[in-house]
Amino acid sequence: MKKTVYAAPIGAVLGAMALSSTALASGWDTTGIDGMAILFSDKKFVVEGQAAYVDRNVDYKDVQGIAPGLNEASKDAIPDIWVNSVAAKANVWGNFDVFAEVHTPLIISEDPGMAWGGRYSLVKTDASALGIDGVVSYKHQLNESSNIRIFGGVRTVSLDFLMQAMSPLAPPPALNPAGLASFDLSSEERGIGWRLGAAYEMPEIALRATLIYDSATDVDLAGALSVDTLGAGPNPSDTPIAASVTLPQSVEARVQSGFAPGWMASLGVKWMDWSVLDDLTVNTAAGTPMLTRHLNYKDGWTVEAGVAHRLNDDLALGANIGWDQGIGDVYSDTYSIGLGGSYALSENVDLGFGGKAIYKTAQDGEYSSTKGGTTTTTTYSYDASWNFVASTKLTVSF
Fold this sequence. Notes:
Layout: H1 10-20, E1 45-55, E2 61-64, E3 81-93, E4 96-103, E5 107-110, E6 124-141, E7 147-168, E8 178-187, E9 191-202, E10 207-214, E11 217-228, E12 239-247, E13 250-260, E14 263-272, E15 279-284, E16 289-294, E17 300-310, E18 315-325, E19 334-344, E20 349-360, E21 363-371, E22 374-382, E23 385-397
Antiparallel strand pairs: 1-3, 1-23, 2-22, 3-4, 4-6, 5-6, 6-7, 7-8, 7-9, 8-11, 9-10, 10-13, 11-12, 12-15, 13-14, 14-17, 15-16, 16-21, 17-18, 18-19, 19-20, 20-23, 21-22
């Protein structure tokens, strides 16, 4: 196929744009937009590793809980996190390609602590997932300048979930003495979902339009409730517990195209069905509800636009802007600007680098849970803040 001046810089330009788009997306999601970019590489084999550090700055204030005289605010209530992934693409035969990825598709990290006024609603939430995905792709040539691609596969996920809150050891309405209740759960088997997508490509002008659907994924969890009396008496025996969670479906649409020699622009939109997570209920081993955390999330939307330019044979730079509709509580609307680059270390190895500044808007939130027919609610607010992402990736292709 005859190649135009648009096609030559496509690899480096894509690397620059993909790196600058690295950040937390909607709600718990860490995958963002265009996470399968290497599937469309014209190389026979590609492997890519990426790591990102997310600096989050959220301080709770105006706290109204149920602990008299203990309505202190919580500084740095949302800890910083690392996000990592490894992906590979291989052309196995003719127009058939396969794509696989091991990654962290979602992270929850909340740590307002034991001293704030909402400690009877929440002390800490720490949850992470390990995703292992596999996709098969078929490319069909329409004519000399364009093709369509259909792909689909399986997405699997395991989940570890820890939630802690203070719990009165004396009968209500007494709050003291109090112990630290820990709900520690892990998935017994991997949750299984599926992915289906299609793309239209015109390689000569680096045009690609994609539409991807990811199904919802059900995950069953089991573990134990433990209570630390914090010296007020002997710790009671652990109680077996179980829970089920549905991770949301999503739809992603994205288009990119070259518009001048060495230049490319892109626009992506992603919807995630976070409203499916209305409540998270922890049951006893017999199935009796023990604790229900009321999440009341709404659906999330992410929109991102970018531009990239290849400066020379080795270096390309990119920039993007983005908006994410918060799903509620600690997840407010964000606006971002990112910069990234890709440098060719050799003919087969590219080093990517990028950063993003994220403006997180102010919002009111609440932690609400029901236990034994009694609902405990803590309200709080937080000011607008700047959050930051730094990321790097290494791509090897043959």
